[in-house]
Amino acid sequence: MKKPCNCPHTHPKQELSSLTTRLRREARKITGPRAAILEILHQHRHPLTNKEIHAELPKGECDLATIYRAMQMLEKLGMVKRFDFGDGVARFELVVEGDDGHHHHLICTQCAQVVEIGECFPAEIEHRIARQNGFRAVTHRLEFFGVCPDCQK
Amino acid sequence: MKKPCNCPHTHPKQELSSLTTRLRREARKITGPRAAILEILHQHRHPLTNKEIHAELPKGECDLATIYRAMQMLEKLGMVKRFDFGDGVARFELVVEGDDGHHHHLICTQCAQVVEIGECFPAEIEHRIARQNGFRAVTHRLEFFGVCPDCQK
DNA sequence: TTTTAATTGCAAATCATTTGCAATTAATTG
DNA sequence: CAATTAATTGCAAATGATTTGCAATTAAAA
Ligand SMILES: [Mn+2]
Ligand SMILES: [Mn+2]
Ligand SMILES: [Zn+2]
Ligand SMILES: [Zn+2]
Fold first, then answer.
1. What integer pLDDT is reported at residue A7 of this predicted model?
2. A141 CA distance to ligand 3 middle (Å)
3. Neighbour-count burial of B53, counting CB atoms closer than 10 A to its CB (0-12 exposed, 13-18 middle, 19+ buried)
4. Which residue is nearest to nucleotide C10 (CA to C1')?
5. Which of residues 112-141 of A touch B (CB under 8 A)?
6. Statement: the pTM of the whole predicted model exceeds 0.85
7. What is the CA(B102)–ligand 4 centre distance, in A?
8. Which residue numbers in chain B have pLDDT < 70?
9. What SS3 state is found at A49?
10. Could you give all domains of chain B from N- to C-terminal order, each with its CATH number?
11. What pLDDT digit, counting tens, does each position of B141-150 carry?
């Protein structure tokens, strides 16, 4: 079980019901495992790994493979955003309807504490990079790493 | 075999001999596999995966596991930099002596073409992010993704 | 309630990466 | 140059995350 975090960041309130509505809209079944997964994601403000989600679920509630499949689908539907902290494990965060979920994190290299970051790579610079190389639809993946206050002691 | 690339970027000239010197300095043996790996890295300007390096080597020349071990060591010695394009495969690039190799790439999501990028995340913003969250020694991982000129046709 | 396509659990398969171990060898030493 | 030794290698097996085949289950539509 992941310990709760009291950081200022919170997911904009969105009823779980609106989440299931989004699923139904895509002709997807609202199953026990899916509702449970959305529930877990909904009560966490930092990205979770599939294994972490699985650990939060009541034992025997849902197979790990089912979670992997659910996250793939939710990602395709744009309901969750996949993040890569460079440790070879995917992490997911719920995305608010209408948003694309693009944002970044600051991760402690010692204890893996995560901080949600509001800043983004400057658009003007990104546009210049795209133009100079003739690329279209350019975006980026960006994560910060450092030593958190606790781990500095 | 990776097709050669004629992009303007080139590795600052550094004799292979200087590379082996760096190895020797660390009390490491200059073996056939290691020399071959450095040679391969030396003639490429974009990061290579272990499998790609292995494919470039004359068949039977060196085991894949040896390449994995060599890259781990070279990374620890700061002679190569590890990059993560988010596809679950590590890539490595030779690092010039005295440099830390920090830089970024623009990758085509269709054909995987790679462009070396000179820009970096603005230091002032990064410092602010570090300060505001009490983090020390903050750095970042950043890669750009888009559709290259060829793949737009 | 029946029908049916979507979903699930479970086990096996993939893939990148790591590791144990015995055989090999670069580098040092005399 | 030959002996000595710790580092290195090849090979096979182990790991860990993620995916997939398939038969059984089930949500949703009729
Ligand atoms: Mn986040
Ligand atoms: Mn590069
Ligand atoms: Zn951004
Ligand atoms: Zn940078």
1. 53
2. 7
3. buried
4. A63
5. 115, 117, 119, 121-122, 125-126, 128-130, 133-141
6. yes
7. 6
8. 1-16
9. strand
10. 9-98 (1.10.10.10), 102-153 (3.30.1490.190)
11. 999 999 999 9
